[in-house]
Amino acid sequence: EVQLVESGGGLVKPGGSLRLSCAASGFTFSSYTMNWVRQAPGKGLEWVSSISGNSTYKFYADSMKGRFTISRDNVKNSLYLQMNSLRAEDTAVYYCARAGGVGLNRAFEIWGQGTMVTVSS
Amino acid sequence: DIVMTQTPLSLSVTPGQPASISCKSSQSLLHSGGKTFLYWYLQKPGQPPQLLIYEVSNRFSGVPDRFSGSGSGTDFTLKISRVEAEDVGIYYCMQTIQVPLTFGGGTKVQIK
Questions:
Q1: Which residues contact B47 (CB under 8 A, 6 or more apart)?
Q2: Omega of the bond leading into B8 within 30 degrees of 0 (cis)
Q3: A109 to chain B: nearest residue by CA?
Q4: pLDDT > 70 in chain B, percent
Q5: Residue B30 gets which letter from DSSP?
């Protein structure tokens, strides 16, 4: 079964850091572009970042550039999001999503259940 | 950035009746390679989003044929031919032709 399971969310103070993980199973992880999407409480979906299968290409939303770093380990079948200098507006459920193939243009076919990040003092 | 505008914001539909959601992009989503990178997702209450339609009009695996997508360039439509109770949730369109990838604001579909 194709599955994505996020972890690492929690409560963090403004200015703090957090590292999210997404464990993938049921497919050849290295063959797919992977993505992070977030959803603030009661709000819509916001794309965060994408990474190509071999980590050559990484893209970020402007508000996350310089603060967030996406990475992956194709041996461990895992996707990561290192989040630094966190702000209250980063409070959201963070979803890991698998694209439909290797390109950035592909649909987000498979989604995890999400992990909640709360930034508050 | 490409702005995705969805209308209406919400929709209340009698079971068995049709429903239609519009999504307009601020720039064409037609790629030089011929594909149009417009997608539709449904987020049911308490669940992550799920892919319904890819590249304007292609139903994803397992999606009922009462869902259909159409459009071109900057104007797109998702139609549900006969709404069922399980179709409630928030529908989002999304473009992937240009970074940053952007979603529409969402359309909430409820049952009357």
A1: B89
A2: yes
A3: B51
A4: 100
A5: B
